[in-house]
Amino acid sequence: MNSPFYSEWRHVFKLDPDRPIDDDRLAAVCSSGTDAILVGGSSGLTFDNTVDLLSRVRRFETPCALELSDPECGVPGFDGYFIPMMLNTDRGEWIARRQAEALRDYGRLLPWEHVAGEAYLVLNPDSTAAKVTGAKADLSAAEIAAYAQVADRLWRAPVVYLEYSGTFGDMATVRSVRGQLTQARLFYGGGIRSAEQARQAALSAHTVVVGNVVYEDLEAALSTVDAVINSAKEQDHVF
Amino acid sequence: MNSPFYSEWRHVFKLDPDRPIDDDRLAAVCSSGTDAILVGGSSGLTFDNTVDLLSRVRRFETPCALELSDPECGVPGFDGYFIPMMLNTDRGEWIARRQAEALRDYGRLLPWEHVAGEAYLVLNPDSTAAKVTGAKADLSAAEIAAYAQVADRLWRAPVVYLEYSGTFGDMATVRSVRGQLTQARLFYGGGIRSAEQARQAALSAHTVVVGNVVYEDLEAALSTVDAVINSAKEQDHVF
């Protein structure tokens, strides 16, 4: 089996098709040395704004993947597609039913060798994602670890995504989850606004996702790239 | 990686700890040539009746696995453990939360190399399992196939279990699901009361589970073993 498209990603910028970004800023982000651009968002995504963002990112060589939470936004031509499945909600429609409905209607169109299920834990109760999906986001470290085990060992999902959206998570919890995974890759996202936070996240997860700060403080956003890459090298050296 | 404990199972007898079975009948079932005994049920399971059934099955050489739907019944000493996760329900607690709670409390006790997640589709709306879990069991063939894809391709679950409990399913649907799986093993259970039905199920799924008829018509139950094994040989010959 070939390595999956995301297997070497350490740093990722996440761009939201519903948020405007000018050409200069987009060029800086795409040329930053990041491993990939991840396109996704919790609201306001359409086919049109997704295809528009893809075509603009395509001017650069950086790989670009789509988080496909709504089949209406299933734009062809991305290098990879993640299909998010919420873990920590009692609304089963967000874990399996909506995904099944999407596959029933559009599954034959998917380039399956570039598709990966993404097991999500939404950990900020105030986030849009938590509200939309009814996630129980105020979990203990032990509960987070247990959900991650469900995804890693029972589902065997390829990616577990700890999403603190907007808040910086507890790195000891993130590290502990990574230590318990048997095969999944751990994505961390949320609240990274500095090189130091990026470095800490890189020491705790496999892949660090940097989002909002791109829109708010470009210099700080760009500084996270080297912080993550160097931190990854540091770990390679230590272990 | 070693082959999982269930990888060669073609025929399985499912025994319910909450239903009495005398020694002669149990001996006939365990000595029938079946590939394994699967212990499980939808209600009335306790630690005591589970350990009692295991100790009685252990007098025979047949492998014995437990479907672990309630952590209180986590009896040690089985050859394997399946952890069921419902697919077709909007009550997320049955897909991931209860499993996470069980892993939080008991995960450290599990012999992980003998544990497999089991992605369940409950397809008889009148069954206890459907009522308990709030399953939407009256699915179209396309919906069943789509849920199976969620489990096989997005989760990457090792086992997909089509459970028609008490009714005999539509074999064309079962075959179609098997044809679309990329890595999961397909278990079929429900309504098998004759060698002919067992043969059809064996031509449609990887593993055939025979349950209720054990308690109602022992001769018919025993006749399903050869029907399944011979049918499996037939397929090996054809394909």
What report would you give on this structure?
The structure is a homodimer of 239-residue chains. Chain A is built from 9 helices and 8 strands. By secondary structure, chain A is an alpha/beta fold. The first copy, chain A, has a domain of 159 residues: FMN-linked oxidoreductases (TIM Barrel), CATH 3.20.20. The first copy, chain A, has an 8-stranded parallel beta barrel with strand order 1-2-3-4-5-6-7-8, surrounded by 5 helices. In chain A, strand 4, helix 3 and strand 5 form a beta-alpha-beta unit. The longest helix of chain A is centred in the last third of the chain and has 21 residues. The radius of gyration of chain A is 17 Å and the shape is globular. The two termini of chain A are 26 Å apart.
Summed up, what is this model?
With 239 residues, chain A is an alpha/beta fold. In chain A, 39% of the residues lie in helices and 18% in strands. Chain A has a domain at 11-118 and 188-238: FMN-linked oxidoreductases (TIM Barrel, Alpha-Beta Barrel), CATH 3.20.20.390.
Lateral strand order in the biggest sheet of chain A: 1-2-3-4-5-6-7-8
> Please, what is the average pLDDT of chain A?
95
CATH top-level class of the domain at 11-118 and 188-238 in chain A: Alpha Beta
Biggest interface: A-B, 38 and 38 residues
Fraction in helix of chain A: 25-40%
Oligomeric status: homodimer
* CATH-level-2 architecture of the domain at 11-118 and 188-238 in chain A: Alpha-Beta Barrel
Tally of strands of chain A: 8
- The structural class of chain A is alpha/beta
